[in-house]
Amino acid sequence: MNIAEIKAAVDAGLAVHWANEGYLVHKDDLGQYLITYKSGGSTIGLTDKRGEKLNGDGAEFFISRPDLGIAIHCSACGSEDVMRDCWATWNAELQLWEAADLQDHAWCNACEGGTKLAQRSVRDYGEAAGRGSSGVSYGALSAKAERWRAARVETVNTQSGDRSG
Questions:
Q1: Are 84 and 106 in contact (CB under 8 A)?
Q2: Residue 106 neighbours by CB under 8 Å, 6+ apart
Q3: Is the pTM of this model over 0.70?
Q4: What percent of the chain has pLDDT over 90?
Q5: Domain encompassing residue 82
């Protein structure tokens, strides 16, 4: 995100973060755009004194979008390339395997080892001034995202042979 996108998102009342959800971008009573670490309360300006350069990499700013669901990731490295063990049963009528019981053990392909899983809100790195990167207004995005999520679950389940939904 660039400076104008970040400011537009904050002005629109969206939750803009830097690096992780612990850092919140907001506007104070004096009209200054600031980055505050929520746990410790430390604050820096969004930009340098001239307002020309972000205090942070623009690619690390994002809008938290809980309406788009959650992402599951490795608690150690943050990768979303994770798996869980599962028992499956054969469905003779449908001629495919169905997930029967999800196990506790988790694996991270990035770490190449066992891990604990964590979750976070889906992030939107698109244009912040009222439209997503697809050009859809944020009001319409929620319904579109729900249709996409349902189609994606069906696609993933069909590819894995799981029809449990």
A1: yes
A2: 74, 82, 83, 84, 85, 114, 115, 116, 117
A3: no
A4: 44
A5: 70-121
